[in-house]
Write a structure and sequence with these properties.
The chain has 498 residues and is an all-alpha fold. Helix content is 73%, strand content 1%.
């Protein structure tokens, strides 16, 4: 295999590029050579790590082999046991969060506010999806910076954290307002009567804003702590940050949302002014957050150009809300299992997306795909064996099956006090969840490489689309599973075991 010698002049061509988007040219070329062998691994992809892209160290004509050897020595394989250990703990913690969200949603669906304002069901997947649209993007951005070695001085770390948290607040205020308008519009369009209740409109907007901003604010600090601690203990934040965000994201969001809508609904007749005050406070805070974000070099570009993925993902999640609204009225226990299948799928694909994105940042220049980075691959190569990060995909798929079984049994037991689930339901549920996760992992491969080729940073754009697609596909596949059970006359609970 022919090696290309790297000169100092070549590295000078990269000096104008941001450090977050490239390493040294010598490490990039060495990585491309080493990665021509399939499934040998990259750290950012979950299989092999490029340790240190220092921006220099280009080779000279007289010592090209020595320089390339030095660059090769920076490649470090991440063992599958390391990936499994680092991902499994936050994955099962995230499962506890999704179980909690499902149980809470199953309990609150009988509350008066959810009975009289059905548009709230349209909001639920979108608000839970904000965790993926906003917080997991923050985790992916900071994890990439940590893996690239850019989080070194306290001053720079503070700038990154302050800018990203402020950015999430801007996005959460705007996104929650828009998704509220979407839910109100769709709810009004499908109503059989033409009654327009203005107080319900204010309640929906105020509750959505409060839930989105508060839950994102809490999650952001958890994510920052996880990423900083992972750096301190020499662990890969790509494996830890997004699942741990999900572990409390779902249950915090649905708990806050249920609490605030019930509180506002019970007092709406006498304290309607509270909804005006809540909305006014967030609208007044919006310009302050915008100024902070715009003056921060790490977040200015995302503020100006990062809205299309977030808003598109909200529309996709909103369609998942329509599925939820129609399903909960017909099928018992649907609301219990819907957050579980959606949450686990979104959590696992977020891990894969973050690792692929980090690998691309470490091994190539934005706009140039490495040799192993074809946009379209056969599903077998992308998910099982053939590309560097297929190892991570295999591990995530293998983890999902026992995880789904455990989580579904635990959720059903807590909700109904009955541990038995019918075999037809469990098989249908596992089939739906496995199809969903395989679909998400394959789509992640396609859209992340496509974004990279067209110079769109996947850290800012990929996860919103993937988690929103997870919400929509999970809800639809779960609905198909319930419809199949209805067609064969099966139940979710094994009545023979009672």
């Amino acid at each position: 295999m022919r090696r290309r010698l790297v000169t100092d002049n070549d590295n000078e061509k990269l000096s104008g590029l941001p450090h977050s988007t490239t390493g040294s040219l010598s490490s990039i070329i060495t990585t491309s050579i080493a990665s021509s062998e399939p499934d040998t691994g990259f750290v950012g992809s979950g299989d092999e790590k490029i340790c240190g892209s220092d921006g220099g160290g280009g080779g000279s004509p007289g010592g090209g082999d020595d320089k390339n050897l030095s660059a090769e020595s920076r490649l470090k394989q991440e063992k599958w046991t390391t990936i499994l250990l680092e991902v499994s703990i936050p994955f099962f913690l995230a499962g506890i969060g999704t179980i909690g969200a499902g149980i809470i949603l199953g309990r609150v669906e009988d509350w008066d506010v959810f009975q009289h304002i059905p548009e709230l069901y349209i909001l639920v997947p979108a608000l839970l999806g904000l965790k993926g649209n906003l917080d997991m993007c923050l985790a992916s951005r900071l994890s990439t910076q940590a893996n690239l070695g850019n989080m070194t001085t306290r001053k720079e770390i503070f700038k990154m954290i302050a800018g990203n948290i402020s950015l999430v607040q801007v996005q959460s205020i705007v996104a929650s307002f828009l998704v509220s308008v979407f839910a109100i519009s769709v709810g009004f369009a499908v109503k059989t009567t033409n009654d327009f209740e203005f107080d319900h409109v204010l309640l929906i907007i105020a509750a959505a804003m409060f839930t989105a901003t508060s839950s994102c604010f809490v999650l952001d600090f958890v994510l920052v702590a996880v990423i900083l601690l992972s750096r301190k203990f020499n662990m890969n934040p790509d494996n830890l940050a997004t699942p741990l965000a999900a572990s409390i994201g779902d249950v915090v969001s649905i708990s806050l949302f249920s609490f605030i809508v019930q509180l506002l609904y019970l007092n709406i007749g006498t304290h309607l002014w509270v909804t005006f005050v809540v909305i006014a406070i967030y609208l007044c805070m919006l310009p302050v957050w915008v100024v902070i974000v715009y003056r921060n070099k790490y977040t200015r570009a995302v503020l100006l150009n990062g809205w299309i993925p977030v808003l598109s993902a909200l529309c996709i999640s909103g369609m998942g809300g329509l599925v939820l609204e129609s399903a909960v009225a017909k099928y018992d226990n649907f609301a219990v299992f819907q957050p579980i299948i959606n949450g686990i799928g979104g959590n696992l694909v977020s891990v894969q997306a973050s690792k692929i994105s980090t690998m691309l940042h470490q091994s190539s220049i934005m706009g140039i795909l490495p040799p192993h980075g074809n946009i379209f691959e056969w599903p077998w190569k992308a998910l099982f064996k053939g590309v560097p990060y297929a190892k991570t995909a295999r591990i995530l798929l293998a983890m999902s099956i026992p995880g789904q079984i455990i989580f579904s049994y635990v959720a059903n037991f807590i909700h109904t006090s009955d541990p038995s689930i019918s075999i037809p339901f469990e098989l249908s549920y596992l089939c739906a969840s496995t199809i969903q996760i395989m679909l998400l992992l394959y789509v992640a491969h396609i859209i992340i490489h496509a974004m990279w080729k067209y110079k769109i940073d996947p850290d800012n754009s990929a996860i919103p689309y993937l988690t929103a697609l997870g919400d929509l596909s999970g809800s639809c596949l779960l609905l198909l599973a319930f419809m199949f059970l209805e067609s064969i006359g099966a139940e979710t609970i094994d009545t023979d075991a009672i």
